[in-house]
Design brief:
By secondary structure, the protein is α/β, with parallel strands linked by helices. Pfam families: adh_short_C2.
């Protein structure tokens, strides 16, 4: 699949991984829908960066937990561009809570996280299904997490929601083929403000260095490296669907050899 003149909806793209994906796709000539729920300034800044690449953008406020918002965003994209080729379900949320603190989570926490991380991705995919099928080469990328595979991460509720997203990716890949491919990417520790804000700077720095030392590649993901993998799935993965791609420098393999 070629990105030039394609149209991508990227949810949660006013900052972080979503913003990096939007900028990279724009570099390759892809028109982008920049979605935000609260950070309008960030979304407008990302759109300006993308437009410098000569592509068109649409900035759209929507909460993916609301089905009406999902349908409205797809309708707006079709009204402006006449097509949707790519959907990146990147919008996500969490509650930071130590896994041992079972009393730190309640039913509403799970419902809130699932509403965005899992149900939101389903609702966006359903809203875009017809448009994605129409081009016979549509692609959905779900932003999951190593938390959903290993039961780790910011909280048990977060890990559970991302695990459900991985399973849903496989289900959707079966039913949306052959016109649409559906894959998930699972970053490990991602450098950036999102984790730094949630963990606090001191804990963030310590965990970053620990993770780097443990990973065979002695590095962790950044928003840009995650975007690179998404790009590769789009332009180089024509026979890849229902897959889960880990992006963690090999940390899931176990401790790296000691440097000498």
């Amino acid at each position: 699949m070629k990105l030039k003149d394609s149209v991508a909806i990227i949810t949660g793209s006013s900052s972080g991984i979503g913003a990096a994906i939007a900028r990279l796709f724009a570099e390759h000539g892809c028109h982008v829908v920049i979605n935000y729920s609260n950070n309008e300034g960030g979304a407008l800044a990302v759109a300006a960066d993308c437009e410098k690449q000569g592509v068109e953008t649409l900035v759209f406020r929507a909460n993916v937990a609301e089905d009406a918002d999902c349908r409205a965003m797809v309708d707006a994209a079709l009204a402006k561009f006449g097509r949707v080729d790519i959907l990146v379900n990147n919008a996500g949320t969490t509650k930071f809570c130590d896994h041992a603190n079972l009393d730190g989570l309640d039913k509403q926490d799970f419902l809130d996280l699932y509403a965005v991380n899992t149900v939101g991705a389903f609702q966006m995919t359903r809203a875009a299904e017809k448009a994605l099928r129409a081009n016979d080469s549509g692609h959905v990328i779900n932003m999951a997490s190593i938390a959903g595979l290993a039961g780790i991460g910011s909280s048990i509720a977060y890990a559970a929601s991302k695990g459900a997203l991985v399973t849903m990716t496989r289900s959707l890949a079966r039913v949306l083929g052959p016109e649409v491919r559906v894959n998930a990417v699972c970053p490990g520790f991602v450098q950036g403000e999102w984790l730094k804000k949630g963990l606090g700077e001191e804990k963030y720095d310590a965990l970053l260095e620990k993770t780097k030392r443990a990973a065979p590649l002695h590095d962790t993901a950044s928003p840009e490296t995650v975007a690179d993998v998404c790009l590769g799935l789009i332009i180089g993965g024509d026979l890849t669907t229902g897959e889960t791609i880990l992006i963690d420098g090999g940390a899931h393999l176990g401790a790296a050899p000691v440097r000498r």
